[in-house]
Amino acid sequence: MSVRAGLVSVTFRQLSVPEVVDVAAKAGLAAVEWGGDVHVPDVGAAVRTRDLAADAGLAVAAYGSYYRAGVSDPADFAAAARVAVALGAPYVRVWAGRLGSAEATDDYRAAVVRALKAATGHGVTVAVEYHPNTLTDTLESALRLFDEVGPGVVPYWQPWDCHAVDAARAQVRALLPYGLPTVHVFSWDTDGSRLPLSAGERLWRTVLDELSAAPGSYNALLEFVVDNDPALLAPEAETLLSWLNSR
C-alpha cells in the first residue's frame, strides 16, 4: 500500500498556479489535482502548470473537469481530455449527470452510461466523483453505474457525513475493487460548515486503514480548508501526514 498526500487546487481558487505550487510544496505535499475552471483551462496552461509542478517536485494527481456525463456536450470531454494529456494527468474527474439517483429515469441513467463509455479511450482514465445530486449519490446507485459502464471508468470517493464512520468504511471497501485511486480529504460539520481536519480523525484514520489494507497506490487530497485560507494548509497537511506516517 502507498498513499500519497496532496491537494485539490480549487481549494484555493483565489491563488495563481505558481502560488498553489508554492503552498503545496512548502506544506510537504506530493501531488496536486488541478482544476479546469480557474487554474488549467486550456492546453497552454496545462503545459506551463506541468512544468512548474515538476520543478517543485509535485506530481499531477488528476485533472478536475466539470464535465457532466449525459448532460454536457461530448466535445467538452474531448477538450478536457486533451488538456489532461498535456498536463500529464492520469485521470480526468467528471460527474455522473446532474440528477440524483432517486430522480433519474431509466432513460436518463442510460444516457449517462453511454456518455461515460464514450469518454473512454482518450488517453486518460475517467474518474467519476462520489457526489450528491448525481448518479453516485448512493453507494447502491454508484456500484450499479460502474457495473453498467465497465472498464476505463473508476470512482473517486469523499464523505457525505464526516461523522458517519461505518458508512465511510463500507463505501470505500465497496469502491476499491472498481479501481478507486483517490479520496478527497476534508472535515465538515453536519450543517456543512468546514472544520479543521483533526475534527474528522476517527473517520479519516478508518478510511486510511482501508486503503492501507488494499494493494495498490492511492491519493489522499486535501480539499475545503476552513475559510479557503492558504495559511491553514500547512497544519492541515501536517495532520494528514501524521496519520499516514503512523501506519
Low-confidence stretches: none
- CATH class category: Alpha Beta
The CATH superfamily is identified as Divalent-metal-dependent TIM barrel enzymes
Q: Approximately what portion of the residues adopt beta-strand conformation?
A: 15-25%
Largest sheet: 8 strands, parallel, barrel
As a percent range, the share of helical residues equals 40-55%
Strand order of the largest sheet: 1-2-3-4-5-6-7-10
Q: What's the number of domains? A: 1
Structural class, from secondary structure content? alpha/beta
Task: Assign the CATH architecture.
Answer: Alpha-Beta Barrel
Listing every helix as H and every strand as E from the N terminus to the C terminus, the arrangement reads EHEHEHEHEHEHEEEHEH
DSSP helix count? 8
CATH-defined fold name = TIM Barrel
Gyration radius (Cα, Å) is 17 Å
Shape: globular
